[in-house]
Automatic annotation (TrEMBL), chains A, B, C, D, E, F:
<feature type="domain" description="Carbohydrate kinase PfkB">
    <location>
        <begin position="1"/>
        <end position="311"/>
    </location>
</feature>
<keyword id="KW-0808">Transferase</keyword>
<dbReference type="InterPro" id="IPR011611">
    <property type="entry name" value="PfkB_dom"/>
</dbReference>
<dbReference type="Pfam" id="PF00294">
    <property type="entry name" value="PfkB"/>
</dbReference>
<keyword id="KW-0418">Kinase</keyword>
<dbReference type="InterPro" id="IPR052700">
    <property type="entry name" value="Carb_kinase_PfkB-like"/>
</dbReference>
<protein>
    <submittedName>
        <fullName>Sugar kinase</fullName>
    </submittedName>
</protein>
<dbReference type="GO" id="GO:0016301">
    <property type="term" value="F:kinase activity"/>
</dbReference>
<dbReference type="InterPro" id="IPR029056">
    <property type="entry name" value="Ribokinase-like"/>
</dbReference>
<comment type="similarity">
    <text>Belongs to the carbohydrate kinase PfkB family.</text>
</comment>
Amino acid sequence: MSQIITFGEVLMRLSPFGNKKFIQANTLEFYFGGTELNVGLSIANFGGNVKHITCISDDFIGDTAISYLNKFDLDTTAIVRSGRPLGVYFLEVGAVMRPSSISYNRSHSAFSSIQPEMVDWESALADGSWFHWTGITPGLTQGSFDTLKEGLKLAKKKGMQVSADPTYRSGLWKYGVNAKDALVELLHCSTIFIGGINEMNEVLGTEYGYTNEEFIEASKLLMETFPSIEKVFDKIRTSINASWHKIRARMWNGEEFRETQDFDITHIVDRIGTGDAFAAGLIYGLQHFDDYKSMDYASAACALKHTYEGDVNYATIDEVTRILDGNVSGRFNR
Amino acid sequence: MSQIITFGEVLMRLSPFGNKKFIQANTLEFYFGGTELNVGLSIANFGGNVKHITCISDDFIGDTAISYLNKFDLDTTAIVRSGRPLGVYFLEVGAVMRPSSISYNRSHSAFSSIQPEMVDWESALADGSWFHWTGITPGLTQGSFDTLKEGLKLAKKKGMQVSADPTYRSGLWKYGVNAKDALVELLHCSTIFIGGINEMNEVLGTEYGYTNEEFIEASKLLMETFPSIEKVFDKIRTSINASWHKIRARMWNGEEFRETQDFDITHIVDRIGTGDAFAAGLIYGLQHFDDYKSMDYASAACALKHTYEGDVNYATIDEVTRILDGNVSGRFNR
Amino acid sequence: MSQIITFGEVLMRLSPFGNKKFIQANTLEFYFGGTELNVGLSIANFGGNVKHITCISDDFIGDTAISYLNKFDLDTTAIVRSGRPLGVYFLEVGAVMRPSSISYNRSHSAFSSIQPEMVDWESALADGSWFHWTGITPGLTQGSFDTLKEGLKLAKKKGMQVSADPTYRSGLWKYGVNAKDALVELLHCSTIFIGGINEMNEVLGTEYGYTNEEFIEASKLLMETFPSIEKVFDKIRTSINASWHKIRARMWNGEEFRETQDFDITHIVDRIGTGDAFAAGLIYGLQHFDDYKSMDYASAACALKHTYEGDVNYATIDEVTRILDGNVSGRFNR
Amino acid sequence: MSQIITFGEVLMRLSPFGNKKFIQANTLEFYFGGTELNVGLSIANFGGNVKHITCISDDFIGDTAISYLNKFDLDTTAIVRSGRPLGVYFLEVGAVMRPSSISYNRSHSAFSSIQPEMVDWESALADGSWFHWTGITPGLTQGSFDTLKEGLKLAKKKGMQVSADPTYRSGLWKYGVNAKDALVELLHCSTIFIGGINEMNEVLGTEYGYTNEEFIEASKLLMETFPSIEKVFDKIRTSINASWHKIRARMWNGEEFRETQDFDITHIVDRIGTGDAFAAGLIYGLQHFDDYKSMDYASAACALKHTYEGDVNYATIDEVTRILDGNVSGRFNR
Amino acid sequence: MSQIITFGEVLMRLSPFGNKKFIQANTLEFYFGGTELNVGLSIANFGGNVKHITCISDDFIGDTAISYLNKFDLDTTAIVRSGRPLGVYFLEVGAVMRPSSISYNRSHSAFSSIQPEMVDWESALADGSWFHWTGITPGLTQGSFDTLKEGLKLAKKKGMQVSADPTYRSGLWKYGVNAKDALVELLHCSTIFIGGINEMNEVLGTEYGYTNEEFIEASKLLMETFPSIEKVFDKIRTSINASWHKIRARMWNGEEFRETQDFDITHIVDRIGTGDAFAAGLIYGLQHFDDYKSMDYASAACALKHTYEGDVNYATIDEVTRILDGNVSGRFNR
Amino acid sequence: MSQIITFGEVLMRLSPFGNKKFIQANTLEFYFGGTELNVGLSIANFGGNVKHITCISDDFIGDTAISYLNKFDLDTTAIVRSGRPLGVYFLEVGAVMRPSSISYNRSHSAFSSIQPEMVDWESALADGSWFHWTGITPGLTQGSFDTLKEGLKLAKKKGMQVSADPTYRSGLWKYGVNAKDALVELLHCSTIFIGGINEMNEVLGTEYGYTNEEFIEASKLLMETFPSIEKVFDKIRTSINASWHKIRARMWNGEEFRETQDFDITHIVDRIGTGDAFAAGLIYGLQHFDDYKSMDYASAACALKHTYEGDVNYATIDEVTRILDGNVSGRFNR
């Protein structure tokens, strides 16, 4: 009854050590990630009951991915397998003014072959109370869009909470569907909007600026346009450079505007998946706390994620809570 | 005037260290390989002038591949780039009775998008005297088959030597062309056959056994069927287990049968690319030695390759010659 | 109804890379193992439904151990936690005539604090059909002996199969109980004896030699002395040196004597847990095959384990079967 | 006549690379450390003559520890061995707002078995002029407390300088002795107090605040209460977060109060052992410089330690002096 | 016609990982570098056509160096070989207030044996339009000074641009020639001066200070003294500590003075070769841009180099341009 | 009174991991070695009291070497330092028929600068009872030859035992002295000859063959020619290939001929220093056992060394003795 559902591609991440480029390396580290998976694993680490639905390859790489997910005690029973290979992304980690670079090998991956009939949504959502989706999945293929749509419709019918992170990524949406149209359709099934001015302008066709006032205006218009949406949460990242960011968040829940303190991340360990950690913190928070504390929890979770290697936030509820209680000096736990 | 041409896919090889499985690992080694490339690089290490023709990805992984080939002083000027990702293969290295396992991610790779019009064969073969091909390339896609065919026809027209390693791999040939028909067509452009009973039976539709007598019979029939073929070289591998092999070779050059001694490879370091090292030794040998010494050179090169990590044979002409001179005790070079 | 139960300590294994000694190293590899756990994980890899019962530390090392077990899809629901640290063993891997060396840090470990009241055996064995124990557990502490005894009594009462690997290790049994007395008591709850002449002489107080004839005699006496025991399986290891072993097995099932072929393991990758792989193969086999095929399966599983790094046998049922079908040459799986 | 004596447990430190958690790792780095040992090794690196007294395991891990200490040219002749294992601690290194975490496996270690009769203090202190102790040792077991007490009494009788770092750690003191009573008894044998307001409040039963004025008041009361104590040195750490600290120090030597500049450690490499480096700098300093320069030297040594991996300060006297001379820009030494 | 020529020693750099000292390590990373080579490789990465001239060892280390240079598609055809070993330098990387330390093993290296007759300058400079030299080469041996001088004379005669980085390093100049005299002689062949107040004072025998006004004065005097010099470029480094630098540049081109913004390098990855990256950026820039944009390009290139491991700047022209366009926040490239 | 003296160069060994070539690598392992040092360290590991005399560099590499020797509790008090760099050798490890390759960088090393006046032989040999030398040292430079000669003369005068391993290496002896003349002069100070037919033929100018009979003849002639020599020990290595050797030994002690069994080293881990381990075993043995047991001990020590990584034999007296007692099956030490 209280299972959180995430749906999306599992990718293998391949990266040289430290700040090396591939051209300098002959060894790599690998992780498994994917924006929706990262959200699911992060919630599982908070102690939530999470099921991830995806399609992975039917080879020893797929077996390795399953084994990796099992480490986190995630429900993997609804995962389907395909003869196609697992998607891969290659990462070169930048520093200071050098940006990180990513190259994808996912366009004919196992997940890209997914079709609605491959997922038994009735059974998959049987215990579901929350469904989280992002703008990556509908941008991949017609099949992944259709499959997501079917899941969201059922989620809506069952009265589940549906959180949307409608990130628009320009490298996707190559298969013929218009991004805005697709996102609009999916947002009508959603109840929580996780996104900022850019995402709202994208789906509203507006040109709001970044002030708090305009954020409130945009949120109001969004909630008028998409009546199912009850709350808007926006994570704001200030990049001093690739190694040093600041994070804060703001929200409009239909009644009040609030924003959090700044979290100053002076020495970033791994930036991948930090937005997903925010979403995870929010989803976990909204099930246990009020809106404002949820946003605070999400921001602290996001900040903490910058200190873990890999795509996943390993922070537990206690560790996030300690940050919220003001223990940010990083003294030893013995 | 004396350039050796190799044509085929460049793959990134990803493998855990030692005998680990992916499920046990979080770090990998990577190399670049591919059967025809391995032949080319091995010949370059012998001191030959080699041009490799291929299509690789237009990202930092493709840049890394080019840089890797440049290390060997290979002519990379005819390489074309594609927006598709580089092909990848995953390798788990076995031992004793445990076989190594491979999983491919190549079916929509940069090379799989190659089409005849992407290669300027006239220019590419301008200085070519030898063209080497294998049964992998025509088995990938219609485009790779057609592109190879066009190259081979020009090579034949120019009177180049053409060596064929018509390995049949059952995991390929998914795109609609019959393997035997394709290989037969390509063999008619070829002058040197590198293969054994299985390969001859495959293209002849026969069922010869493995004795020397039947090898000679099969070779004679092959040379009747394919009049362009002048010589047949067969490498025979005896596998005690995955860690211990013996290698020998035999040949029929239209006039005489010869076979080599056994090379006893008691502690295999890396088995990948050992057949390619045989082909490379043969191609290099036939340009410098008589048939028998070429076969001997090829066998010694093949044996030596088992002692190098990665897909490429690093042996120089001096090192192979030292083996042929009987120095197999592995004493120090100071 | 068909769950296999294993009960015993989980140890962290710490070892330098390759054949290095600690005195030469500053980095280590770690694994989790333990003789009964190894049996359980190996059966899980064959596809069996396994529950492992143990007591581990309540810190991030214990969390890591749980996560490690989850990778294998083992039932970890009956595991209890303790404020004491997880047991550790340090391993230096030998080669040729140099033996491997082990040093233990386990005498005040989490598991050593186990007491019968900490395990709810009724619930733990609810779905159990098979219980496997070894001579290590009763040799640790009074509490571990008592806890095991209670579990075995319930298993006997429920009519479960009980396999015993009554290895006697002289470094244990420091807490005041006589090894022979304890093992005798536990064997009276057991149905399958996995052990050889040394183990039978130990519990019978006899001095049989190693011939097949004496093995049969000893087995008969054992089965008279312990009427619950139905079958005896003996794995015979011939050590040429630390890097090269041969394995075969023999059995007496009350009616017939059989022995297997020799498996020649010319290049050992990791010897730890190979006996456990034999036991696992046997337990899995006896649930699916006849006695002789089970012994053959167990021997092949044991041989294969020598090719995996770490304590666990990763071989699947298909991989073991391939060995039994005679495919021991280690050719590629593509 | 001029040997510095340190007495305390030697622990093996096990830690994943970089900022990884154990749950993400399969390889570890190891070091040997322990608060009193760190002080001793750091003084040895300054060029001091140091003897470390401890009890370590009688296995290859203990041999490795001895070999490690020998690297630093420490006097290890008074070390005794035990059949119990060496103590271990596991470390996960945090960053920014994530604290580092430590889990200990030391409660039944070789050192925890130490008893007064195992150390021949007369012989061990024969050439001793200085004895350094910390609040860790008396907090471990009755035996370690008693052994330390015996050593300190002899040191006092011989008129040696005795420096005390009476850190109170709440995870210790489980064996039945009251921490305050024990520390008070030991402080009566001590001449130099290395600690701040918290430590003074602990042993005085007071509640002084952190201002310089209160520090002076507390120091005066301390020196009244413990007439053997001549000087108080306090290291003040300001933690911006786990990756960025500032260090300064202050002192009261019975006559004057002084404090040092701030050392700004913007990119911490390894925080472990930095307090020990301060103590080592002070002990070395007080043997060669006046009080104020000693405190300055200690602060610079402490700051430098943050830049070395592992528990030990590798800084030489020249390197510390260079910092004191104002060369903190980190230009190359060629 | 447009080849850039660099001439100087190739050194193997050997360094422990991270901030480890050799005394803590048993593994090393290696790179190849050398100040003039770094300039050449950096220009090659910008897309320039570069030939590096040097003398390297005639062993497998020399082969490895050649292979390393080939990765960058550098023209290595003018490299000569020697029976002497390749020069080596050992590096310990500092942090915060700990400086990095370097120890050289180069005084009898392959390059130190170079003599004018070993380089065929006519042929080597056949396509050359630019020659870059530094103060390291003439400081090594009489032979290296003479060989450089001969090259520069020919470059001057051919009307090539000649850039000089007359760094004076006190550890060199042991062979009997006066540094100032040598540098003066070489500067009379040069057209671009890359250096600051220290370098100008060194060759002018003056004592100018560091203000912009004095920089202009010094530059004017320099250009009077060395009429061939047309422009002076000065890179100014502000070291907060070993981990945090700021970079800016200034110039006097005979007509106007300009200076760049500060680049704030808050988290240095590798400081080696950053000055060389400045020179490379300048040389590349002056061939494509005006003076001011060239200086800006050089500064951005220098700043970016601090983010790459090893001696070489991997930045492409696009990446440097992006920095100049103000994209310094390090957002992802996907 | 009973100190064993070794004298010779300490070299840093640099080698890629496993069987990689430098051209494939970017990381290395390093060790310190040198034939006489290896002998000394091996004897120290047996428990002997050893002093090594050498000259090393006065930089952090030299400090690291000293720290390395200290690990073994070797007497390093007679080591002198030089401004020249430490000698280095680069190693590529072969396998099967591929030989290992070595390249030296030692001709202007710290040790090559040694001169008789740099060593205070009277003091250095004060407690010496045995002096070991090899043919490497006199082959390096006039200074190293002269220094050794002076030491040996004093050793002879003091009546010390002197063991000679007069290996002739053709890459040395470049400085003007005739190898045979030098070795003859040094042998006249020696009492134990460790060498075979080749070494005897070299110094006798004879052409004996390899049979036992000729070995005895040669030994007799050697002992006539060099009356100080009392015994001849010859280690015979049979190389199946670079990965698989057999070792046995024979001796003539003036009265009887004996030879040992074959030790079959089926999986060589590291071949470097195995001859030194033989010498060490012999020296240690002759101080504790009779001639035949000493030779047996030396052979077992030599065989064991093949199983340790690096140049040093880590075997203890117990471990060698266990081999001699027939325990060569490599079973666990727990």
